[in-house]
Give the backbone structure.
Amino acid sequence: MSEKMYVALFGGLDETATALDALRAIGVAEDRMEVMSGVPFGEKMLGRPALETHVGRFALVGAVLGFLSSVALNFGTVALYPLRVGGFPLYAVAPTWVLTFELTMLGMLLATFFGVLVELIFDMFSHKPYDPAISDGQIGIFFTCDENTFARAKTALQEQGASAVKAVEAKVL
C-alpha cells in the first residue's frame, strides 16, 4: 500500500501532546510525524525527542581552529622573530592567555554563525508541508501512514479534539 501525508489540526498544546501519544500507540513512527505551529514550542513540551543539529560540531571545530591559530600567533611569531628584552623570558605564557581566549571564542562564534547559516540554507531546499490554519493559531501534526492506519488514526485524533484530520494536498513548487 502506498503511504500518504495527512494533517491533524488542534487548538491547544495539551491536545496536541496527547494526540502525539495516540499516534505513537497506533504505530506511527516518530520520524513520520512533524509538528508545526505559529508559536515555537519546545520538544519537551510535546514529549518529542530533541532535534539533532550539526551546529555544535561547527562550534567545536571553530574553537579548535581558533585555539590553534592563537598558538601559532603566540608562539610561532616568537619562533620566527626572537627578540630578547632584558630579563624577560622569550616565551611569555601569561600574556598569551588573553589572545588565546579571544581567538578561541572568535573562532567558535564565527563557526557557529556559519553552521546556523548552512543549516538554514539546506532547510530552505526541503519542501515542508503546510496548512493555512497554522497561520490562524492552530497546531498541525503532519504524519505519514498507509490508509488502514489512517482510519484508526483519524478516529483517535478526533477523540483527542482535532478540529480537522485530512490528507495534505500536494503542491508543486
